[in-house]
Amino acid sequence: MKKAVITVVGKDCVGIIAKVCAYLAENNINILDISQTIVQEYFNMMMIVDISNTKKDFLVAATELEALGNEIGVAIKAQREDIFDMMHRI
After folding, report:
1. Do the Cβ atoms of 47 and 6 come closer than 8 Å?
2. Which residue of 9, 42, 49, 90 shows the fewest CB atoms closer than 10 Å?
3. C-alpha to C-alpha distances, 78 to 40, 41, 65, 88, nearest whole angstrom
4. Alpha-carbon span 37 to 9, nearest angstrom
5. Does residue 84 have a pLDDT over 90?
6. Confidence at residue 87, expressed as pLDDT on a 0 to 100 scale
7. Contacts for 18-25 with beta carbons within 8 Å, 24 or more apart?
8. Which pLDDT belongs to residue 17?
């Protein structure tokens, strides 16, 4: 299984989760774990996803997610789990 970490941060508005999850479903990316909070009017979501079955190159999907974030007014970042782990190792 190949995993990735996706973060979504920005001002809360209607449809953020729906639009991100619709993109993932359309590209056969499975959500394994998800956490989201809203602090005052700021939205924060972190997902661990399985990218094993997507037909898209990871960099293409990450770029499209970033563009989706720009459309809906949030910052979306996607990183492969192994790179994320290496960057955050103490």
Report:
1. yes
2. 90
3. 25, 23, 8, 15
4. 10
5. no
6. 63
7. 19/68, 19/72, 20/45, 20/65, 20/68, 20/76, 23/64, 23/65, 23/68, 24/49
8. 96
Neighbours of 57 (CB within 10 A): 9
**What digits encode the pLDDT tens for the residues 51-81?**
999 999 999 999 999 999 999 999 999 998 7
CA distances from 43 to 5, 17, 89 (A): 17, 10, 26
**Alpha-carbon dihedral angle through residues 52, 5, 64, 27, given to the nearest 10 degrees:** 30
* Euclidean distance between CA atoms 50 and 61, whole angstroms: 13
CA distance 35 to 47: 6
